[in-house]
């Protein structure tokens, strides 16, 4: 049987200031999706509310817009996937072998407190599946509790976009609702990052796979595939 992957994207289109646009960092999805497609995996995209997933404008400009993301933008069928994402209540976690949380600053607002996403993640984890994230996607893991009540991330080695090193260098730290790295550490996670910012860095702690930034998406997906 083919493996099945559930991708998670955001519904948020802007920061607290509506004039400051954000959304899905497209290449963080496309690199993983394309790699899994090459292995014949079945894939679906879910978001906290279902429906459209806005795109982060900064990720659609040179030099950040790479060949994978450009190919998606030119493919109506692929872009339709992002216009019609599933709601959590439309997803049966038992059908999926792995969940992959994409990033973009948007997810800081709608991933952490989505009970639907938490329930799906817990179910996949507890039946032996892989839980993964890239960049800010780890915000979707902040509040996931297992059946016994303990946080999934407690005592786990993981990574994600670094606060404030990469946030400051990206020029957006002052606009963010919280410090994601600090919140992870407050929950008992063993956060780690690469020595240099903006380079690929992936950590696998058992079935938990996390990538630090957009340049880590492909390596994160490769590790997920290896575990599967």
Automatic annotation (TrEMBL):
SUPFAM superfamilies: Class I glutamine amidotransferase-like (SSF52317). This is Putative intracellular protease/amidase. Residues 86-225 form the DJ-1/PfpI domain. Keywords: Hydrolase, Lyase, Protease, Stress response. The keyword Hydrolase applies. GO terms for biological process: methylglyoxal catabolic process to D-lactate via S-lactoyl-glutathione; proteolysis. One of its GO terms (molecular function) is glyoxalase III activity. Pfam families: DJ-1_PfpI. One of its GO terms (cellular component) is cytoplasm. Belongs to the peptidase C56 family. HSP31-like subfamily.
């Amino acid at each position: 049987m083919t493996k099945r992957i559930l991708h998670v994207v955001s519904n948020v289109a802007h920061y607290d200031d509506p004039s400051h646009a954000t959304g899905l960092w497209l290449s963080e999805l496309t690199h993983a999706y394309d790699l899994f497609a090459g292995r014949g995996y079945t894939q679906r995209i879910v978001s906290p509310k279902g429906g459209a997933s806005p795109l982060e404008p900064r990720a659609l400009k040179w030099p950040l817009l790479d060949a994978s993301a450009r190919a998606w933008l030119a493919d109506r069928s692929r872009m339709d996937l992002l216009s019609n994402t599933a709601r959590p209540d439309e997803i049966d976690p038992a059908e999926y072998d792995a969940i992959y949380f994409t990033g973009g600053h948007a997810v800081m607002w709608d991933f952490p407190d989505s009970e639907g996403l938490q329930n799906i993640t817990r179910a996949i984890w507890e039946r032996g599946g892989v839980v993964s994230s890239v960049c800010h996607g780890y915000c979707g893991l902040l509040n996931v509790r297992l059946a016994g009540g303990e946080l999934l991330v407690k005592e786990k080695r993981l990574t994600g976009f670094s606060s404030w090193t990469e946030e400051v260098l990206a020029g957006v730290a002052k606009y963010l609702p919280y410090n994601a790295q600090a919140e992870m550490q407050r929950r008992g996670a063993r956060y780690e990052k690469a020595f240099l910012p903006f380079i690929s860095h992936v950590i696998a702690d058992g079935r938990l796979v996390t990538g630090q930034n957009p340049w880590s998406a492909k390596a994160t997906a490769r590790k997920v595939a290896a575990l599967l």
